[in-house]
């Protein structure tokens, strides 16, 4: 085991990368175009009554100011096999949704087809937190894909769950 003091962004990023997490796409129709941002900071079970989830978004995001205006957000917890979709949706170049199968709710929430979990949410609050903002969302509807397994992000790489021996 290695112990070190935090001596900059690179070392803290390396430390945080040791915590495995799912990957979620947050998307909605803004005007007549879909917008999306991808984060591995998604947390479920913040509250059961009302049902709340949360994530952290960088203050430097150019997408979040657009998404926060949407009446509803789609949250898609990406599944194994959606690694390329994840990279495309998080790219700053090209058409992010080109060839990506999606569904759009009446409220304008966009979800990624094939995701392990899809939620339709409304923004409850946004709290400054260093170089990020913590966004709390209230879940309005859920769709679970029991045939999929979650995509895991750990050590700056995509991983897959394996069965216990």
Topology (SSEs and partners):
Layout: H1 9-16, E1 21-22, E2 24-30, E3 33-39, E4 43-48, E5 51-58, H2 64-67, E6 73-77, H3 83-90, E7 102-104, E8 110-112, E9 117-129, E10 132-144, E11 152-154, E12 157-159
Antiparallel strand pairs: 1-11, 2-3, 2-6, 4-5, 5-10, 6-9, 7-8, 9-10, 11-12
Could you name the key traits of this structure?
Pnp Oxidase, Chain A; 7-stranded antiparallel beta sheet; 12 strands; mainly beta; 3-stranded antiparallel beta sheet
The largest pleated sheet is described as: 7 strands, antiparallel
Number of strands: 12
Shape estimate: globular
Low-confidence stretches: none
Number of helices: 3
The helix content is 10-25%
Determine Rg (CA atoms, Å). Answer: 16 Å
Distance between the termini: 25 Å
Give the CATH class of the domain at 23-42 and 62-123 and 140-154: Mainly Beta
Which sequence of strands runs across the widest sheet?
3-2-6-9-10-5-4
Secondary-structure element sequence? Answer: HEEEEEHEHEEEEEE
Strand content: 35-45%
Q: What is CATH's topology name of the domain at 23-42 and 62-123 and 140-154?
A: Pnp Oxidase, Chain A
Structural class: mainly beta
Q: Give the mean pLDDT.
A: 91
CATH architecture of the domain at 23-42 and 62-123 and 140-154: Roll
What is the CATH superfamily classification of the domain at 23-42 and 62-123 and 140-154? Electron Transport, Fmn-binding Protein, Chain A
């Amino acid at each position: 085991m290695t112990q070190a003091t935090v001596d900059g962004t690179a070392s803290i990023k390396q430390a945080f990368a040791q915590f495995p997490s799912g990957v979620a796409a947050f998307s909605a129709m803004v005007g007549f175009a879909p917008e999306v941002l991808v984060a591995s900071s998604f947390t479920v079970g913040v509250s059961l009554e009302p049902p709340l989830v949360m994530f952290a978004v960088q203050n430097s995001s150019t997408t979040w100011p657009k998404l926060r205006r949407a009446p509803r957000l789609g949250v898609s917890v990406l599944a194994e096999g959606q690694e390329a979709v994840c990279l495309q949706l998080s790219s700053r170049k090209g058409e992010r949704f080109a060839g990506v199968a999606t569904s759009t709710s009446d409220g304008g929430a966009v979800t990624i087809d094939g995701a392990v979990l899809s939620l339709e949410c409304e923004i409850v609050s946004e709290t400054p937190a260093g170089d990020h903002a913590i966004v709390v969302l209230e879940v309005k509807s859920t769709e679970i894909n029991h045939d999929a397994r979650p995509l895991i992000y750990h050590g700056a790489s995509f991983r897959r769950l394996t069965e216990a021996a």
